[in-house]
Design brief:
- By secondary structure, this protein is mainly α.
- It has one domain: Substrate Binding Domain Of Dnak, Chain:A, Domain 2, CATH 1.20.1270.
């Protein structure tokens, strides 16, 4: 199933469906990447004390991204302040997580992948906020 197809199949045609689909997809991809990165960091035994902030930001970002993707999947109204607040929170969490993961990316591939997913999600959230 493609998110875009699912959103377009909804009986209520949402004016931002084209913009919503990539954002929903990137939110869920980012949530998965952050969850995986947190788990991988927990298994970096010799570096674990230096990864506490990364793990915390991963978990916060994963939760916010999952919630944002879920709410956006419900086709919020254009003036839905809660959806806009979630998008802004997602953008903020993704930027913070990307910054933290980039610090560890030269040594840890999972942090590099997570940082990229966070940057992509931040970009799609910013785009949707501007739409």
């Amino acid at each position: 199933m493609k998110t875009k197809d699912m959103l377009q199949s909804h009986p209520r045609r949402h004016p931002l469906a084209e913009s919503l689909a990539p954002c929903v997809d990137s939110c869920f991809e980012c949530a998965q990447a952050c969850t995986h990165c947190a788990d991988a960091c927990l298994n970096e035994q010799e570096h674990l004390p230096h990864l506490v902030a990364c793990i915390r930001k991963n978990l916060v970002c994963a939760d916010i991204c999952a919630a944002t993707g879920t709410v956006l999947s419900r086709l919020p109204e254009a003036d839905d302040q809660a959806a806009k607040a979630l998008l802004q929170a997602c953008l903020t969490a993704c930027r913070a997580c990307a910054d933290e993961c980039e610090r560890h990316a030269p040594m840890m591939e999972h942090c590099r992948i997570c940082a990229a997913a966070c940057q992509d999600c931040a970009t799609t959230c910013e785009t949707l906020l501007g739409a």
